[in-house]
Write a structure and sequence with these properties.
Blueprint lengths: L7 H7 L9 H15 L10 H13 L4 H7 L6 H8 L5 H12 L11 E12 L12 E7 L2 E13 L6 E6 L6 H14 L3 E7 L6 H9 L4 E4 L10 H5 L4 E9 L3 E13 L9 E9 L8 H5 L4 H10 L10 H24 L2 E2 L6 E2 L6 H16 L18
Parallel strand pairs: 1-5, 5-6
Antiparallel strand pairs: 1-3, 2-3, 3-4, 6-9, 7-8, 8-9, 10-11
Length: 400
């Protein structure tokens, strides 16, 4: 193991500027300002939105629950008071629109008016138990994972751009929604931002006749893996030829008819990945994409940035067992928003301008540092519980 010199951190500090470019107070102020500007929650009495958001952000910074957070902060409202206000959320569509405005409130650099490479995927969060009447429309059924086939599903549109990888749109998927409807909703959100799609990367879950036909009708360049089924015939014949090539293919559906599209099959060496060796042939559905054939798999790998955003989101997603789908959406939206604002503050504060693009210093401000900044700023404002006192028992009755 490589040993880090004991004076390494000291050397970095000595060579740094004397004035801080970002503090925990500024970090909290940036996040609170976006939430207060874009997300409206009806409050009662002396309980102010700033206090509610402070509790939510502290819980998110620790990926903890509301109850645990309220028991940790000395001047925080009770957990029941916070849940009372959150339980009043019932307009999922309205809250989703507010969260999408928040996601786009702080964009690094100039994205509006440009065309960008995009990735769209579904983030599935495992659900256990019997759904309530309000939950049932949002319980998405999929292949078994984490011991369940039931999930909350959130579709996101993610920009793949150098130093500006952010989530631009979020949609809570309903059980009865088609993938075309999901894509339409996300594209409507992108249209309000005036950001075009240079190339769209999709997961194999979108491989279907309606989706491909709709994307072609909208003239959107796209890449997605072809689902290979069976031992012979159909898509299996595409990879059984054991060569790298391009071809035309027609996919049939008993319900939706047929659609024609181009398929590129590329052979890649496994190099012992997952215990596999030799050459694997990967087929992709392709539309209006300008790439060299053999460069396609490596280019498609950039789509996995969206899955990285899901893992980052899990670092700051509030733990909950609530059966209110709007509250769950709020927690997921705050998690994605924190990842977005981390990217923005890294670009806006922890960087230096230079010809050809800003120089970022991500090692100085990782996501966990931002979450730590939020937690300590809130703890300084609201204080921490430092002692536990037992209740005084009531005097025993004399029985007379």
């Amino acid at each position: 193991m490589t040993r880090i010199p004991a004076n390494a951190k000291k050397s970095v500090c000595e060579s740094a500027t004397s004035n801080p470019v970002l503090t925990d107070a500024t970090t909290l102020e940036e996040v609170l300002s976006v939430l207060q500007e874009q997300v409206a929650i009806e409050m009662e009495g002396d309980f102010q939105p700033e206090s509610l958001f402070a509790v939510l952000l502290h819980a998110a910074s620790h990926a903890s629950s509301i109850e645990q957070t309220c028991q940790t902060l000395a001047d925080a409202p009770t957990g029941n008071a916070v849940r009372y206000h959150l339980d009043k959320l019932d307009d999922v569509a309205g809250l989703e629109a507010q969260l999408n405005r928040a996601l786009a409130a702080r964009l690094p650099g100039r994205l509006s008016g440009t065309s960008q490479r995009m990735a769209i995927d579904l983030n599935l969060i495992a659900y256990y138990g019997t759904p309530s009447e309000a939950e049932a429309p949002y319980i998405f059924r999929s292949q078994a994972k984490a011991g369940t086939c039931s999930f909350y599903a959130y579709a996101t549109a993610y920009v793949i751009a150098r130093s500006k990888r952010i989530t631009l749109a979020l949609h809570a998927v309903r059980q009865d929604e088609s993938m075309v409807a999901v894509l339409t909703h996300l594209f409507d959100c992108l249209a309000t931002l005036d950001i075009g799609i240079k190339r769209l990367y999709l997961d194999r879950g979108f491989y279907s006749v309606p989706v491909i036909r709709w994307l072609q009708a909208c003239d959107i360049p796209f890449l997605m893996p072809v689902v290979v089924r069976g031992k012979q015939g159909g898509t299996r014949t595409l990879v059984n030829q054991k060569r790298t090539y391009k071809t035309a293919y027609t996919m049939h559906s008993q319900t939706y008819g047929a659609v024609d599209f181009d398929v590129w099959v590329v052979g890649t060496y496994q190099m012992g990945l997952h215990g596999k060796h030799g050459v694997e042939y990967l087929p992709f559905a392709v539309y209006k994409v300008s790439l060299r054939l053999r460069a396609l798999p490596e280019n498609y790998r950039q789509r996995f940035g969206i899955e990285c955003s899901y893992r980052q989101k899990n670092l700051c997603r509030i733990y909950t067992t609530t059966k209110n789908p709007a509250t769950r959406l709020l927690y997921v939206g705050i998690a994605f928003l924190l990842v977005n604002l981390w990217t923005f503050m890294l670009w806006a504060y922890v960087s230096l301008p230079r010809p050809g693009g800003r120089r970022l210093f991500p090692a100085l401000f990782p996501l966990r540092t931002m979450l730590q900044f939020l937690a300590q700023a809130i703890e300084r404002n609201l204080g921490l519980i430092t002692q536990i006192c037992l209740p005084i028992p009531a005097p025993a009755s004399s029985g007379l």
